[in-house]
Structure formats: C-alpha cells, structure tokens
Amino acid sequence: MKYVHNNKFNKKLENMEDILENSNGVYLTDKDLFTKIWTSPRQVFKYINDKRYDKYVTILLILSGISRCFDRASMNNMGDKMPISLILGLCIFIGGLFGWISYYIYAALVCWTGKWLKGQGDTSSILRIFAYAMIPSIIALIFLVPQIGIYGVEIFKENGDLTSAGWVPNILVYGSFILEVVLGIFTIIFCVVGISEVQKLSIGKSILNLVLPGIIILTPIVVIILIYKAF
C-alpha cells in the first residue's frame, strides 16, 4: 500500500511539473518546435538546449547532409560528367550516410573556438542546435523536385539550358530558386541565434564563432599555396 501511495504521489508531482512548465510557457510539443522556430527561434533553441532534446536530431542531420550534397553537386557542375540518375543516387546515399560527419566536425570546431570567446556548450549541444537550425535547408529539398522534373540534369551543369521549357515552367523553377535563397538566409539566422543561445554569446560573437573555424582551416591552406607559388 505504501508503494501504491508513493506511486500516486509521484504521478501527481509529475503532473504539477507539467502544469508549471505549461504555465511558464516553456513546454513545447514536437509541432511547436517545427512551427515556432520561424517566429520565436530563441525560445525554441533555449528549450532544445535546456531539455537536451535529441528527438529528430539524427534524421535532421541525415536530411541536412543530403541537402548539402545536392548543393555541392550543383556548385561542382556534376551534370557535366554524370547522368541525373547517378547524381541523385550519390547525393542521397553519400549525403545521407556521411553528411552528418561534416556537421559533427564543424560543431566540434565551433565548440573549440567558442571557448576563446568565453562561450559555453559542448559539441553535442551545438550539434543538436545545428540539426534544428538546418530545417529551412531541408525544406529547400522540396524545390529540387520541380527543378529536376522540368530541366533534369541541366540543373547541375555549368552552362545548363534553363530557359527552353516555356515561361510557366520557368516561373516555377526560378521562383523555387528564390525561395531556396530565402530559406538559406533563414538557416543562417537560425544558426546565429542558436549558437548565441547555447553558448551564451552575443549575436556579434556568435557570428564570429561561426566564421572562425573556416578561417582556421583556410589559413594554413592559403599559406601553403603562397609558399608553393613563391618557390
């Protein structure tokens, strides 16, 4: 009987905690995370960080890896060398399987450089924030469907023909390009706000901390190139 009484007391205590969380506006459902992030990103990132909310992190990182792989395929003009079927297969397989690794390495570098700026948060907490910050870029994957459906491999060519389908398809394709740019801007904003929240840094220092890893990686490469050219 004593065990039953304690069990009931614990349930009441949990219910009271839930009520307090809801009354203070800090309890967010899964739906809230994906909707409020557009209007209240700091609140969402604070909740994810405070609760160490790992749900969906894996799938978000996989989809982010695929999205990034498609971006690289376009920037590297892979359509000049490969058919569309091979590009799709490589981007989905390689991006989904290994894409998250680059985010983990970047999160580790941001954690490291963040300490120079008196920032907080470990690699796991930063990676968690990056996963949710990439939601806009993941949504941008949807716009690849009409682009590939209309122009196919031309999307991934250096001088691809993106005008011959007619004005209605062109409006659809170029409209999707614009939306991708807008979503890319949202991704950058979410990354800055998320890092600001998890590392307890100002917006300015958060931007600096996101740039520092790139500087650290590129600086020795540039020095080596200059030395090579000098000799």
Which keywords apply here?
mainly alpha; 77% helix; 0% strand; disordered N terminus; 231 residues
Q: Can you offer a commentary on this structure?
A:
The protein has about 230 residues and is mainly α. The chain has one domain (about 50-230). It has ten helices and no strands. The chain has helices at about 1-25, 30-35, 40-50, 55-75, 85-115, 125-135, 135-140, 145-150, 165-200, 205-230.
Element layout with pairings:
Blueprint: H1 2-23, H2 30-36, H3 41-51, H4 57-75, H5 84-116, H6 123-133, H7 135-139, H8 144-151, H9 167-199, H10 203-230
Helix pairs in contact: 3-9, 4-5, 4-6, 5-6, 5-10, 6-9, 8-9, 9-10
The radius of gyration over CA amounts to 22 Å
Query: Can you write the helix and strand succession as a string?
Result: HHHHHHHHHH
Question: Helix proportion of residues, in percent?
Answer: over 70%
Number of strands: 0
* Whole-number tally of structural domains: 1
Distance between the termini: 86 Å
Indicate the mean pLDDT: 84
How would the global form be characterised?
globular
Secondary structural class = mainly alpha
